[in-house]
Design brief:
By secondary structure, the chain is of the alpha+beta class. Helices cover 50% and strands 17% of the residues. A hairpin with a 4-residue loop joins strand 6 and strand 7. The two termini are 26 Å apart.
């Protein structure tokens, strides 16, 4: 996998390549960092990928001759709990059960053998397909992947986004800021501070950027020296996370963040790039997933229709 990553990073020849990869974070949010690398390496222009089974369930077909995109698929096996007496039990893989034990396990009225948990046994290669290799109309995907966010929608999302931040242990404060900064992350007081007077869209962009700092850079809480020494790296990571999350929300994104990431990555060795891209992918996914949990929970409580994009 390291060789594939190196090959992928070596292909980042321009800001456009960086943009394609960061856009994939939003489009392929359910896939791991390693699988996103594999998808980008095989098809940088992929719009939406899923398995043959998923497309079939939605009622669409894979085009004849379409070439699959290889990804790593986790393989699991079930562990079961076998009660020996009131105090003792044994944990055993399901595939090691004998016929009599399997019969007891399948009996709903027999609790002597029950499901315990799943355990990862390894990974195998599987195929996913891009939507362009199916008969699914592209406009259906575009409606989901390319939303447009206005100020009214930003207000709606911002309220839920602030609740997401609070749930991670940080408060949001609006203050006058003496410097030119639009906001900052105060680790000592567990606050994300936003400059007063900003419009809704800019407020949301600032919140995303500083929320990224609060999650990805907790180790800087009592280490201002480290931040000063590696400021470009940390700001590049936060800005790239903000780009991906903003794209997910349908916010207009500035290309300067892509130029920044490209310029920074050109002069770094493989491990530094790999670590930073791993941080960018994982924390972009975490922020999106954290928001989705609150949004979906609020939706269930209100009984309303979901208007936010979900990928």
């Amino acid at each position: 996998m390291l060789n594939l990553k190196k090959e992928a990073f070596d292909k980042f020849q321009s800001e456009t390549d960086i943009k394609k990869f960061l856009d994939n974070i939003m489009k392929f949010n359910n896939y791991s960092f390693n699988n996103q690398i594999l998808i980008w390496l095989q098809n940088p222009d992929a719009e939406y990928v899923s398995s043959f089974k998923t497309f079939s369930k939605m009622g669409y077909k894979i085009n004849k001759g379409a070439k699959g995109i290889k990804i790593f698929i986790p393989n699991f096996y079930n562990l079961v709990k076998i009660n020996i007496d009131d105090e003792k039990y044994e944990i055993k893989p399901y595939y090691l059960l004998n016929d009599e034990e399997k019969k007891r396990y399948g009996d709903k009225n027999d609790n002597s053998i029950s499901f315990y948990k799943q355990k990862l046994s390894g990974f195998s290669l599987g195929n996913v397909f891009d939507v362009k290799d199916t008969n699914m109309p592209m406009e259906i995907i575009n409606q989901e992947l390319n939303p447009v966010l206005n100020n009214n929608k930003a207000d709606e999302i911002m309220d839920m986004f602030i609740k997401t931040i609070y749930n991670d242990g940080f408060k949001v404060k609006y203050k006058e800021i003496e410097s030119t900064a639009k906001g900052y992350c105060d680790f000592e007081n567990k606050e994300i501070v936003v400059r007063k007077g900003l419009g809704s869209l800019m407020q949301l962009k600032v919140l995303i950027h500083e929320y990224a700092h609060s999650l990805a850079h907790k180790h800087l809480e009592n280490n201002n020296r480290d931040y000063k020494e590696h400021r470009n790296q940390y700001e590049t990571e936060a800005e790239s996370i903000a780009y991906s999350v903003a794209k997910y929300f349908g916010l207009n994104t500035n290309n300067y963040s892509l130029n920044y990431l490209y310029s920074w990555s050109k002069n770094k060795d493989f491990k530094e790039i790999d670590d930073s891209f791993n941080t960018i992918v994982n924390y972009s996914k975490r922020i999106i997933n954290n928001f989705e949990k609150f949004y979906n929970r609020d939706l269930e409580l209100s009984g309303g229709e979901k208007s936010c994009v979900s990928v």
